[in-house]
Write a structure and sequence with these properties.
Bound molecules: zinc ion
Number of helices: 2
Shape: elongated
Distance between the termini: 17 Å
Largest sheet: 3 strands, antiparallel
Structural class: alpha+beta
Number of strands: 3
Strand content: 15-25%
Oligomer: single chain
């Protein structure tokens, strides 16, 4: 089962979704936590990780 966890990490890590326009983008979680990442579509800084549950 370790392989699935790895694949999940690779798929979902560093991918965030804009809370305003649902635009998906790749960014480092560190930058998102610092609020340095803005949505390219609507310029909002409120993002959430792609994976909602868990
Ligand atoms: Zn947006």
């Amino acid at each position: 089962m370790a392989k699935i966890a790895e694949a999940e990490a690779r798929t979902f890590r560093n991918i965030f979704v804009c809370r305003k326009c649902k635009h998906k983008m790749r960014a480092s979680s560190l930058k998102v936590a610092q609020g340095k990442v803005t949505c390219r579509n609507c310029k909002a800084t409120v993002l959430r990780p792609l994976r909602k549950r868990g």
